[in-house]
Amino acid sequence: MKSKKVLIVEDNDLNRKLFENLIGQLYNFQSAVNGLEAIDYLTKEHFDLILMDIQMPRMDGISALKRIQHNELTESPVIAVTAFAEETDRISFLKMGFSDFITKPIRPKEFLESIASHLSRSKKSSEDLAQTSLTASILDKSVIFQLMKYNSQETIKAVIRDFLLDTSSLVKKLEIALAEKNEQDLLENLHILKGNSGTLGANSIYLIAKDTETFIRADNWTLVEEGIAKLNREKSIFETYISKEFIFKL
Fold first, then answer.
1. Ranges 61-65, 101-105, 123-127, most confident
2. Computed from CA positions of residues 112, 117, 121, 125, in that sequence, does the dihedral angle turn out positive or negative?
3. Across the chain, which distance is largest between two alpha carbons, in Å?
4. How much is the pLDDT for 29?
5. 73, 57, 74: which is closest to 9 by C-alpha?
6. How far apart are CA 214 and CA 163, in angstroms?
7. Alpha-carbon distance 166 to 172, whole Å?
8. Which of 38, 109, 132, 179 is most open to solvent, judged by the fewest CB atoms within 10 Å of its CB?
9. Could you tell me the CATH number of the domain that includes residue 67?
10. 117: domain range?
11. Distance CA 205, CA 197 (A)
């Protein structure tokens, strides 16, 4: 299957690295960090499948798909990768021309099965990719165990170290943005934190970040402040959990 080549379009560094680790064991790949880069690659070479994140800087996934369709850059499947919102949103993505829909946080087994299905040209209902509701837990170990099936223990340890460093940095940025009432910075940093925590199964952090996004859009600054304080506490809880109870020491 190394004859197949996948274009990964994802702006989140942690998500992109994990996608590369998963996909790279089975297929060739190239990565882009936004829609403009993806279009540039598609004008130069052929890809058998495109994984397209939806929310990205410079050019989002929907705009990139429209450009791809207008210029007829590829006939290969383009799979939308984004956080699940409403059923009508999922239907809308498929109507736009995406070949399928994968929800974040991804689950490696289902993620690779979907890619393999499209690369083999067999049809797979997008209903099979629906994610179950997340429960508020410090860490969903099943996510880590699935990741370890496709990545070495050292790789996972490095990813978790990066996650801890990134989370500390992001929470500090959120506190600064809160003090300045900078809504754009708040939403951008929460988006990154939500993507990182969702990928690793840090469900409590993910759910708090998701709720805090909602509070910002509702202009409820009291709950935004509470949400960021909760993220700070949950970050410390996660660090303690990893150091004492996790399946391997960092």
1. 61-65
2. negative
3. 54
4. 96
5. 57
6. 23
7. 10
8. 132
9. 3.40.50.2300
10. 5-129
11. 6
- Bridge partners for 7 per DSSP: 30, 50
Mean pLDDT of the residues in the chain: 86
Distance CA 166, CA 205 (A): 13
Q: What is the pLDDT of residues 67-105, one digit of tens each?
A: 999 888 998 999 999 875 565 677 788 888 998 888 888
Tell me the C-alpha distance between 146 and 116, whole Å: 17
Give the number of residues written for the chain.
Answer: 250
- Collapsing DSSP to helix, strand or coil, 15 comes out as helix
Q: What is the pLDDT of residue 234?
A: 94
Does residue 119 sit in the same domain as residue 151? no
129: confidence class by pLDDT, cuts 50, 70, 90:
very low
Cβ count near 149 (within 10 Å): 10
How is the beta sheet containing 28-32 ordered, strand by strand?
28-32, 5-9, 49-53, 78-83, 100-104
**Which contiguous run of DSSP H or E holds residue 17?**
helix 13-24
* Nearest-angstrom CA–CA distance, 33 and 9: 6
Pair 197, 206: CB distance under 8 Å: yes
Angle at 188 between CA 184 and CA 191, to 5 degrees: 140
Angle between helices 141-150 and 13-24 (to 10 degrees): 50
Same structural domain for residues 123 and 150? no
